[in-house]
Amino acid sequence: MARKSKVPINMSSLLQTTTGTLAHIQEKTNSLTILADIVRQICPDLPADAWHIANCRHDTLIIEVKSPVWGQRLQFERNNICNALVNSTDGNFQKIEIKVNPQGFRQQRHEITEKSRAELLQSAPLHSVESNTVVNEKTAKQFLAIAQNAPKGLKEKLEKLARVAGKT
């Protein structure tokens, strides 16, 4: 029986030898990372959450930004970015397309809001009158507790809110 080698197989060499979908995905991911580094070096003042490389097609690099302001900033550096892309990719990418997509960036916040809303609805059902009065009494007590250490004007307003919350 032949002995197995105990030397671990390097995953990067395994991915480089294959020609399947996984190798294609890794190649594209690596190239997008390199292209993002080029843009980041040319425009170091751009915040990381304001833009991202969306895709690349044929000889065009597509950059998405979350506001027109950042799109305009990239427009000013368009020629420098194009020159750097041509030099580093041996002419594979010669054009840049800048797209403003605020919806893509808002989607993350929307998902978080929906999750927290669902958790709130599960923890405290709003259709029960008894649970609402318990919640209102707790809220009134919390307002009074906060009001104890608050300045005079804020204290009066918190006490008023506590009275309103306790009545309903």
Q: What is the chain-wise order of helices and strands? A: HHEEHHEHHH
Order of strands across the main sheet: 1-2-3
Our count of domains comes out at 2
**Briefly, what CATH class of the largest domain?**
Alpha Beta
InterPro entries: DciA-like
Organism: Colwellia psychrerythraea
Protein name: DUF721 domain-containing protein
Description:
A hairpin with a 2-residue loop joins strand 1 (51-57) and strand 2. The protein has 2 domains: 16-106, 2-Layer Sandwich (GMP Synthetase, Chain A, domain 3); 124-167. The protein is mainly alpha-helical and 168 residues long. Helix 2 packs across helix 4 (78-88) and helix 6 (129-147) runs antiparallel to helix 7 (152-167). The chain is elongated. Strands 1-2-3 form a 3-stranded mixed β-sheet. The chain has helices at residues 11-17, 21-42, 68-76, 78-88, 102-123, 129-147, 152-167, and strands at residues 51-57, 60-65, 95-100. It contains 7 helices and 3 strands; from the N terminus they run ααββααβααα.
Q: Mind sketching the topology for me?
A:
Elements: H1 11-17, H2 21-42, E1 51-57, E2 60-65, H3 68-76, H4 78-88, E3 95-100, H5 102-123, H6 129-147, H7 152-167
Parallel strand pairs: 2-3
Antiparallel strand pairs: 1-2
Helix pairs in contact: 2-4, 6-7
